[in-house]
Task: inverse folding
C-alpha cells in the first residue's frame, strides 16, 4: 500500500469564518492547478461552520511532499485562522516523516480491508 490518506480536523477561530473560507478556496485552487499526485481533497463543514474536516488521499509520500510545497504561504495563512490536527493513514516515507516532524499528527498503519 503506497497511497497515503489523511484527515485534517480544522477548528475555525471565532470570527474568522470568512477568512477561513477565502484561504480554503485558495488552497483548493492551488491543489487543482499544481498537484499531480493528489487523488482526493474534499472539505466538509459541520452545521454551525466551526469545524472543517478535510479528507485527503495521495498517490504516495512524494505526492504529499509536492502538495505541501505547492500550498506554501496558503498553509501558513490557514493556520492563522484555525487550529489543525492531522491523522495520516498508510506508511509515510522517511522523507515525509522528516518533513512533518513536530506537527500534531496521529499515524495509523494499514491493518486490512478491501
Result:
Amino acid at each position: 500500500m503506497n497511497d497515503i490518506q489523511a484527515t485534517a480536523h480544522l477548528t475555525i477561530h471565532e470570527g474568522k469564518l470568512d477568512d477561513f473560507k477565502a484561504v480554503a478556496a485558495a488552497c483548493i485552487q492551488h491543489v487543482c492547478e499544481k498537484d499531480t499526485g493528489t487523488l482526493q481533497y474534499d472539505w466538509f463543514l459541520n452545521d454551525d461552520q466551526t469545524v472543517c474536516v478535510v479528507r485527503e488521499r495521495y498517490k504516495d509520500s512524494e505526492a504529499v511532499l509536492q502538495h505541501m510545497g505547492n500550498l506554501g504561504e496558503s498553509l501558513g495563512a490557514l493556520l492563522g485562522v484555525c487550529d489543525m490536527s492531522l491523522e495520516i493513514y498508510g506508511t509515510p516515507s522517511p522523507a515525509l516523516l522528516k518533513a512533518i516532524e513536530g506537527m500534531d499528527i496521529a499515524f495509523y498503519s494499514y491493518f486490512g480491508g478491501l
Remarks:
- Residues 46 and 52 are 6 Å apart (CA to CA).
- The chain has a mean pLDDT of 95.
- Residues 17-34 form the longest helix (18 residues).
- Strands lie at 4-12, 38-45, 51-58, 82-89, 105-108.
